[in-house]
Amino acid sequence: MQINAVFVCLFVLIDSGMSWDFFVPVCVGDLVKTGGINQYVVQDVVSAKQLPSYLNKFKAALRSQGPLCILEHFDTGYSVLQHCKSVDLAVKEDTLELLVQVVSGLSVSLPSILVSTSLSAAERKEKLNAVKMSVFLLCKLTENLESDSYRQNIVTATGKGGKKGKAGGEGLMQWDSEREQVLQALVQLFQLDIRSLWSLSLVEEEFISCVTCCCYKLLENPTISHVKSKPTRDCVIHLLGLLIKKYNHLLGAGVKVIQMLQHFEQLSSVFAQAVSVWSTEYGVRAIIGEVIREIGQKSSEELAREGSGVKAFASFLSEVSALVPELMIPNISVLITHLEGESHTMRVAVCEVLGEILVRVLCGDGLDESGRADRDRFFDTLQEHLHDSHSHVRTRVLQVYTRIVNSKALPLCRYSEVMELAVGRLMDKSINVVKSAIQLLAAFIAHNPYSCKLSSADLKKPLEKETAKLRELKEKLEGTAPVAVIKASELWAAMVPELLVTVRKELEPTSEAEKEQQEDEEGGEVEEEKEAEDDRATAVKIAQYLRVNKYSRQLGSDDDTSELNQSLPPTPQKEPEKEGEDGELKKQEMLVQYLKDTETFALQVERAISVINTMLYWKTTSVVQEAVQFCVTVCEFSVANSISGVRKMLPLVWSTDAAIKDAVIQAYRRLYLNPQGDTIRMKAQTLVDSLSELMVDASLGTIQCLEEIVQEFFSSGSNLQSTVVQVLWERFTGKRETSSLYKRAAVLLLGMAARAEREVVLGNLDTLCSVALGEKVTEDFLLARDTVITICNITDHVRQSKGAPFRLPQDHQLFSCLTQAVAEGVVMEDPYWQSFMEQAVRLIYFLAESPDQLCSRLLQRSARLLLDQIAEGGEVNKDAGQMQDGSQESNEQVNCVCLAQLLAVCGCVAFWQVSHLERSVSAELRRRRGETEEREEKEKGPAGKQTANESTMEEELGLIGASAEDTEAELIRNICETELLAEENLLSAFLPLLVRVCSSPGRYSHPQLTTAACLALSQYMMISPSVCEENIRLMFTVLERSTLPVVRANAIIALGDLTVRFPNILEPWTQNLYARLSDEVPSVRQTAVTVLTQLVLKDVLKVKGQVSEVAVLLIDPDSHINSLALNFFNELATKDNAIYNLLPDIISRLSDPERGMSSEDFNTIMKQLFSYITKERQTESLVEKLCQRFRTAKTERQWCDLAVSLSLLSMCERGFKRLQECWECYSDKLTEPGVYQPLLSITAKLRRGAKAQFKAQVDEFEQRLTAVHTRGLENVESPEMDEENQKAEVSAEKTVTRTPAPTRGRLKSKRGQDFVTPHKSRKSKKPAVTFSSDEEEDEEGE
Questions:
Q1: Is the pLDDT of residue 153 over 70?
Q2: Is 1154 helix (H, G, I), strand (E, B) or coil?
Q3: Is the pTM of this model over 0.85?
Q4: Region labeled Disordered — which residues (predicted)?
Q5: How far apart are CA 1230 and CA 1293, in angstroms?
């Protein structure tokens, strides 16, 4: 009864009023335990089944009593928390809705109460308990629902779907919206100043912790940083901001941010935003200092550990600096220490922070002295880390500098220094660093304050001129202004003597005083005191006079004053003229400094362009793309020499990498094919101007590459096409005044357009003939040549069209113009006629009907004109009465150039005649045969099916087509063999002349004649094998004995073509071709290596030991030849085992004493060649082959070369084992340092990273090497030998045999030679142990 009475009393206390206080528990379960005095305890935990009914009562009370109903129904909400895992989701959602309404209701009712001055203690306690209870329940329930949501999210993500998954998904969607409502209600409540509800406004920490734990729980959601979670994220940030500002959560927030960043990397951006909001909108700037201080105190060892959150810290710092950079400056000293740490991630973050500060805070001219000092210090720090040990740091620093330059925040005084560092980073080993350096240099060019259009050469003269002018100004000022440089101290020193004289004269003491002063020495002290007093008085008077500028009173009479003024130097005063001269001097100094900076910048840009241009052909696609973009940027800003990079990247349109090809096409489209202008006409003119500038002085390869891009433009259907074509025709015909260079560019561009649309040129052939091939053709053969190239673009050969060939009749105006121009040019001495003639003959064979007849008439006409010229020259000489010998000499002199040009025509016609037969005629025969077969099949119809079935087997085997093609090929060969050089053919008349000129170099010594004859003879040799065999010896004689490098170079090219056409005839002469690789003239060596590279890589020539001559070119003094040789071996290395098979022979040839190659050159060549040996089996085999060559090597130099070659191999365990097995081959040569040292270096390489067992073998081998080297082979008995002797003795006693390792290796070689089984060989060697090396030496001696 007493217990019941106590409970009744408690219930009465609870019901009667606010005699209890609600304390927020640490754990939810603490509320059911007995608490302290007047502490609220949960009395009734409702079961899960009864909760719906109790919630209905809660709802009714809320409607009737308002939010204070939570005081009576707190147990219901608490029961939901207790049964949270077992109750339905609907119950939790209903409870959550009720609690949100309670908190919202309190937010509405509290404002009027908080401002009330008549609030009683009981009412205050009642409101306070209601706030605590509702917030506690709401926060805890929110945490539970968030945990359920996270678990459900994981289940839904990993499950296969279904009804439960769909239901769970719907619940999650509802929770996202409800979560936002909860946070809004809490924000609305805490925006009120509810601190007054507590006594002394001291809010207990447990209450604030309850709310903050809920907030941080919500932030742990993996999707909190997603866009869809932005409302929730913003509410949490604002709620925490209120708690930090009003409820003393500053320290707790700082610690919690650090903890969560360590465990949740995705929160870096969220907390960066949060810290920014707290410091700006809520004015709590100390939070940044707290967080950064915590990060700064992290040790380098701690950050290096896995899971330390270093990535999150770094990302957080970077994003905070981007949001509030000005607030980072006071705390930057804490972060600077991480620049010396081991974590490169933190170094990157700190550099990014410095970059943000420099871009957004410490920029501009308005900085005070402290700001400038900080800026300079930060820039120095960034520059230091351009040389950071980690490539990622270097990359990020370069990117930071790129942003600084783009933001124009880099001081002008640092441009040169930073750009020099950026150019240096182009040589970095890291690809990412190189790309970032290219981007930085592009930013420098885009935002530079100098004039990029001038090159350093253009700036040199203005700089010298202005520097001389500055020197003159300085000399002028030094000569006229000696007075102006007198200092005040020097002026006073000059005035002192006169001033002292005057002062003593005017202010000297009385004579009585002097007498008294001289009377007695005993009164000296008194007199000194008086004198001191007089001096002080005198000084005071002088100061007074000087203060009021009364110089006349101080100095005495006017006469004395005037005399003194005359004796004193004048007071320095700046005259207006001198001030103007000083200003002019300063302006000149600024101008000279600007020119110096501009020249330095231009030199750095030129250096960067030259380096980046080489990157256009790197193997890394991303670097090539960056280099292409750099070239575009440089060209867009009209930088000097920018066109070089644009031209150099043109061949990349043929790249097999689609990304590179697309980048180049887009670059040219951006530079040239998207012109700017107000009208279509202006755009077309701009496009033509830019393309013409690119084509001026461009090489043939550049023009061919440009064709692809221009053809794409004309194939794209642009609305500029017709206008561009019109502008080009206007330039070509001269309607618009333009230079001959741009006229040639216009006609070439028209030819490129004709590849896409034939009518562009075909419809204007008359115009082309009249303008470029008419009467004035001899005035400009270059324009005529380019016009012929343009017309060639409408032929089938260029367009690769199928069907009936497109050809023009022989009497067309075009061919009459061409034949006349070529024939007339034969008797002229125009240096450009040759190239025109070659293109003209080519066009005749491509476009004319029966071109052989046209060319025959061309040869006749050319020969007749030449004979007429000779006859005219003879008549003139005869009329002049000259001697016969003199006339012959004159004739020879006149005829040499013209005869050379006639022979060139003959050779060109012969070459294109063969090409015409084998390409055009053969293709036409195949086409006609195909048409005939189709026609016959149609005529046969159904009746011919049986016959067709009979020939099915032959068709499947390809016998019908093959036999027909063979017949056609045989026909072409017979024509070449019998008809082309028959007597009735005009070509045959010139062959003896060609042979005579080539075989008589002493008589026909004119360089042009010799060159033309040699080239024409080689073209004649292409006609048939018989002609080739008859003249092959003569051609090689010319190749070896001609004194003209151009003749030798042309002969190499011609013989390369002949090797492709008649490989069997040229095969015995291969050695003569390789001999030209050692020609004394670089141009001949370059041509030789180019031709041989093509022949070898196309498998026309078999790769033999002569390749050693190409290897010698790896050390050629000419860098271009060096690179060609390197390219040869790079390509050869792609063929299976090619270099591996050649290496032994190359080593033997290069180490031959007769060659006399230095050891340094040999090492350089071998180092490059051995870099291609990467397979382990190849290395093992080479070790054995090289060791065996020690036996045949005769000189010490050959031994050393073999040892060096062994040391250059990337040795492995198998190779080392083979090296040990071949010990007998080289052991007797180890006394030579040149053999010992390379082999010793092998052991040093093998020891790196080797396992213990293998390292012991290497050490043992090294000991053997050293022992033999120091004492000689005959004085050293190796451990293996001891073991052999011991085992031999044991085997003799016990009749148990076991062959030692070295003997086993030797016997293997014997078995391989004598075909003896292993058992027999062992028995035969059992009685005695011998050394195979000794045996072989004895045999060699015999």
A1: no
A2: coil
A3: no
A4: 507-536, 555-584, 923-957, 1270-1342
A5: 36
